[in-house]
Amino acid sequence: xxxxxxLFGLFAGMVIPLQTSINSRLxxxxxxxxxxxxxxxxxxxxxxxxxxxxxxxxxxxxxxxLFSLPLWMLIGGGCIGVVYLTANILLLPHLGSALTVVVxxxxxxxxxxxxxxFGWFRVPVHELNGPRLLGILLMLAGVFVVExx
Length: 149
What we know:
Helices cover 82% and strands 0% of the residues. It is built from six helices and no strands. Helix 4 runs antiparallel to helix 5. By secondary structure, the chain is mostly helical.
C-alpha cells in the first residue's frame, strides 16, 4: 500500500508542472493570470463536484454539518490554492517551468517542516533535526543550480 501511495504522490507532483504550463498559456491568451486562475478553479470545481457526486453521494444528503465548521477550514484551503495557482501562472513566464517548480517546492518544504515541528493543524510532531535541515539546504542549493543552468 505504501508503494501505491508513494506512486500516487509522485504522479500528483508530476502533474503540477503540466497544470502550471497550461494555466500560464491560458493566462497569456486571456491576458490575465487572475482570469486564468479563475477559469482553472471553475473547471476544477465542476469536475470535483461530479466526482464527489459519484464517489460520495451520501455527503449531499448530510451536508448540513458543513455550516458548523470553522470559517478558516471552509475558506483557507481555497484561498491558499488561489495564491499558489496564480503565483505559478505569474512566475512561469519569467522563471521557466523548472525554476518555478523548485522555488515553490522549496517554499512548501519550509512550511511543511514548520508544521511538522510545531504540530500545527494537529499533525503529528516531527522535530526539525540535522538530516531534515540538510534536506532543506540541499533543496536551496538545487534552486541555485536550476537558476544558474
